[in-house]
């Protein structure tokens, strides 16, 4: 008998909407309108809570972002942190491989990281991460 195939899990609307918005930005993540970013985070945070995403699953990612934020504040040189920013993508992939609930966050953050080419872009990435986690926690996420 043939092996039963796993049904494809549909990509939730909010993940698609955020990724599409980010992919359509033509001049880096800094052009992500802040009101759209907050509106998206407001929907996405509770969705991640529904998926039972626990903050400790993304703690290494959050810690890395905060460390880069501090490094950038100290040096003021984007070029010194750019490589580390791009290397956040494998950290997300690892978190997603360990827990399915981290996959949507990984998809959104990977799209966002691809649009980070300047200090201003990175600052918008930090705002996105902080907003998503804030709404996740507000929803009762741990």
TrEMBL record:
Pfam families: Csm2_III-A. The keyword Phosphoprotein does not apply. The keyword RNA-binding applies. The gene is csm2. Transmembrane segments: none annotated. It comes from Fischerella thermalis CCMEE 5318. Belongs to the CRISPR-associated Csm2 family. Keywords: Antiviral defense, RNA-binding. One of its GO terms (biological process) is defense response to virus. InterPro entries: CRISPR-assoc_prot_Csm2_III-A. This is CRISPR system Cms protein Csm2. This subunit may be involved in monitoring complementarity of crRNA and target RNA. GO terms for molecular function: RNA binding.
């Amino acid at each position: 008998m043939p092996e039963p195939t796993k049904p494809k899990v549909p990509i939730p609307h909010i993940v698609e909407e955020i990724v599409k918005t980010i992919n359509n930005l033509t001049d880096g993540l800094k052009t992500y309108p802040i009101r759209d970013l907050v509106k998206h985070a407001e929907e996405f945070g509770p969705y991640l809570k529904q998926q039972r995403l626990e903050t400790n699953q993304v703690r290494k990612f959050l810690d890395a972002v905060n460390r880069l934020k501090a490094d950038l504040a100290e040096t003021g040189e984007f070029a010194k942190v750019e490589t580390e920013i791009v290397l956040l993508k494998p950290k997300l992939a690892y978190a997603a491989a360990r827990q399915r609930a981290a996959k949507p966050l990984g998809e959104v953050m990977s799209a966002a990281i691809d649009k980070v080419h300047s200090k201003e872009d990175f600052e918008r990435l930090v705002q996105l991460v902080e907003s998503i986690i804030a709404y996740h926690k507000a929803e009762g996420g741990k």
